[in-house]
Amino acid sequence: MDELRILLSREQIAQRVAEMGRQITTDCAGEPVIFVGVLKGAAVFLSDLVRQVRVDATFDFIAVSSYGNRARANQELAGSWESSGEVRLTKDVEQSLRGKNVILVEDILDTGLTLTFLKRLLLGHEPKSFRVAVLLDKASRRKLAVAADYVGFVIPDEFVVGYGLDYAEKFRNIPDICVLPDVSG
Ligand code: PRP
Q1: Closest approach atom of ligand 1 to CA 109
Q2: Which residues form ligand 1's pocket by a CB distance below 6 Å?
C-alpha cells in the first residue's frame, strides 16, 4: 500500500461530510428525503452522509455501467475516448420517486456523463425536488455541463481511490482518499 499517497484524510472527509449533512438538514426543512446512491462507489459516502442528516431519510441504490468508466477513461483520455459514449442502467431504484424529495449521491463527478444520464432518468420520475450530492468533483475534466448541488471537495485531475472509489475493484475499503500515482500519470 505504500504506493498510495493520501489526498484527503479520513478526518478531513468526516468533517466535510458532517458539514454537508448539516447543510442538507437545513435545506430539507423537515421534509422527508430519499437518498439514491450510485453503486458501487457511492455506498461508503452515502452511509456516512445519511447518518449526518437530521431528517426522515430513506435510501435506495441505482447502478449504471459506462463505457467511459474512470479507469478506462483515464487510459483512453489522450486518445479518442468520447463522453458521448454509452451509459447503461444495470439496476433501477426499487420505488417510485414521484412526488418525493430526492437527493442523488455520487462519490465522484468526473466527465459528467453518468450524472447527465442519471439526472434525466430520475427527473423522469417527476420527484417533488431533485438535488445532487457528490463527495469529489474533478471539475477540470467536465465534458458535459452538469453540476452538483452539494460538493465535498473539488480535486485535481489525479486518479483517486479509497472511501468507496476503486481501481479495478480494489482499494474501496481504504478509509482515506488516496492518489494512485501509476494510474494518474
Ligand atoms: C464513477 C463514479 C460515477 C462516474 C463518474 O463510477 O461513481 O458514477 O464514475 O464519472 P463521469 O462523470 O465521467 O461519468 P465508476 O464507473 O468508477 O463505477 P463504480 O462506482 O462502480 O466504481
Answers
A1: 12
A2: 38-42, 66, 68-70, 106-115, 166
State the pLDDT confidence band at 72, using cuts at 50, 70 and 90: low
Query: Whose grid coordinates read 484524510?
Result: 9
Which residues does 133 contact at the CB level (< 8 Å), separation at least 6?
20, 24, 49, 103, 104, 105, 106, 148, 149, 150
In the reported structure, the alpha carbon of residue 40 is separated from the centroid of ligand 1 by a whole-number distance in angstroms of 8
Higher pLDDT, 29 or 161: 161
Find residue 23's DSSP bridge partners. none
First CA to last CA across the chain, in angstroms?
Answer: 18
Question: Which pLDDT score, from 0 to 100, does residue 154 have?
Answer: 98
Ligand 1, atom 8, lies closest to the CA of 114
Residues classed as catalytic: 110
* pTM score: 0.91
